[in-house]
Amino acid sequence: MASSMKIIFGLLTFVTVGMIIGALFQLAFIRRLEDSYGVPHWDNDKEAEHLRLGYVKPEVISWSPRIIVLHNFLSTEECDYLRAIARPRLHVSTVVDAKTGKGIKSDVRTSSGMFLSPAEKRYPMIQAIEKRISVFSQIPIENGELIQVLRYEKNQYYKPHHDYFSDTFNLKRGGQRIATMLMYLSDNVEGGETYFPMAGSGECSCGGKIVKGLSVKPNEGDAVLFWSMGLNGASDPNSIHGGCEVLGGEKWSATKWMRQGATS
């Protein structure tokens, strides 16, 4: 009897120790997963590098209108590169004339800007940015217009407007605009928020004023993806937005408008 009890006790001890060891191994495995979560492990993977996988952090800030902030969308080098390309070619920004569909100067928009050329679109760094925009927006690269780089200096702004067209002239090349990727290229800006007056139910800061709606502060490398077209396929009037007055510093941004079809 005593011998049998010793055997049973020994088996129980063996099983208990095995379970403890197994639990410790499982805990160590989970800890390794937790430690590695969110840290990019894409050595020698150019595709993942171009998409900045592990760095870009999406944050949905509104479902109606649809607005997503993509933190760390651009690298510091990419921001510097776009500003350097644009700086010597800046000119007074224009807005679309609703009657003719052509660009005209207006006090609605007081920034300066330029468009990248089709040749520059083939530069490796621009190609990487274009592909990243396409993947995160889920819109083909060929549906995008050329990237526009803008600079807003002190006291400059862009009054609330829609990105979709109200004329028929601009619809001939790719159809209606359906989404916009707005990328911030500079830091240390006072004011200069991107303002959505029809988003949210609270108040926000816009150029030093408290107003109704939702605003996004310009942080270098972040991007805002918002949709001019609703889920019903119609242009969304709630997508109205503007660039708040810059109170200090310079606000640099790059804009990519995307359409229903190929633009070329």
How would you describe this structure to a colleague?
- It catalyses: L-prolyl-[collagen] + 2-oxoglutarate + O2 = trans-4-hydroxy-L-prolyl-[collagen] + succinate + CO2.
- This is Fe2OG dioxygenase domain-containing protein.
- It is found in: Endoplasmic reticulum membrane.
- The strands form five sheets. The chain has an eight-stranded antiparallel beta sheet with strand order 1-2-15-9-18-7-6-3, with helices on one face. It has a four-stranded antiparallel beta sheet with strand order 8-16-11-14, with no helix packed on it.
- It starts with a helix and ends in a 5-residue tail after the last strand.
- It has two domains: 37 residues; 214 residues, Jelly Rolls (Sandwich), CATH 2.60.120.
- Strand 12 and strand 13 form a beta hairpin.
- The model has no long low-confidence stretch (mean pLDDT 89).
- It is of the alpha+beta class.
- It has four helices and 18 strands.
Any key phrases for this structure?
about 260 residues; 18 strands; Jelly Rolls; alpha+beta
Distance between the termini: 91 Å
SS elements, strand count = 18
CATH fold name of the largest domain, please?
Jelly Rolls
Number of helices: 4
